[in-house]
Write a structure and sequence with these properties.
Elements: E1 2-8, H1 15-27, E2 32-37, H2 52-63, E3 68-71, H3 73-77, H4 82-92, E4 97-103, H5 104-109, H6 116-122, E5 125-128, H7 141-145, E6 167-170, H8 179-183
Parallel strand pairs: 1-2, 1-4, 2-3, 4-5, 5-6
Helix pairs in contact: 4-6
């Protein structure tokens, strides 16, 4: 089984999350994409964060796809940091070929994450373009450090079968939705 993991606050979930999930399903030939709704992102303030139950509901509403699975597994695993979640999932499902999915904006922020180097060495990573990021992502700290491990986009479908570190950047049609803009009252 090939599973993409899209973690985040989903505060709220929106069509942009679905958009990149559908792209990942097709381009990586995934069986499923799991949305890992974080109980509380350690890099984001708790103030203004909807309850986990509300964010799970918004994720179910936004997902609307038979191969996108909404999960609060981090709450059950009691993991806070991505590296701990990925380690626990690999332990729990050793036969699954996981790929970490993230928007390009998160790749730029990744050096702020706990053990970000271990994340890159834990499992393959697919970076999906986001508005306002584009090519500058490829000049960021993570992309430069792991440049030799980047798969060309025409081979990116092989990413789930690669030994980490391995990553690919997917230029794609951009979706304008943003949780920040939605919370601010802009669609």
């Amino acid at each position: 089984m090939r599973v993409g993991l899209l973690g985040g606050s989903f505060n709220p979930a929106h069509a942009g999350h679905r958009h990149i999930s559908v792209i990942a399903l097709k381009r990586l030939q995934l069986d499923r994409v799991w949305w890992l709704v974080s109980p509380q992102n350690p890099l984001k303030p708790a103030q203004g964060m909807a309850s986990l139950a509300d964010r799970i509901r918004s994720a179910h509403s936004a997902a609307r796809h038979p191969r996108i699975v909404v999960s609060a597994i981090e709450s059950r695993l009691r993991t806070t940091f991505t590296i701990d979640t990925l380690t626990a999932l690999r332990r729990r499902w050793p036969g699954v070929r996981f790929v970490w999915l993230m928007g390009a904006d998160n790749l730029l922020q990744m050096p702020r994450w706990r053990d970000w180097n271990h994340i890159m060495r834990r499992m393959p990573v697919a970076i999906l373009d986001r508005p306002g990021n584009g090519i500058k992502v490829l000049q960021g700290k993570v992309a430069l450090r792991y440049r030799k491990d980047r798969l060309p986009v025409h081979l990116a479908r092989l990413l789930p079968d690669q030994q980490a570190p391995a990553w690919a950047f997917f230029p794609c049609r951009l979706h304008p939705a943003s949780s920040t803009a939605i919370r601010a009252g802009h669609k």
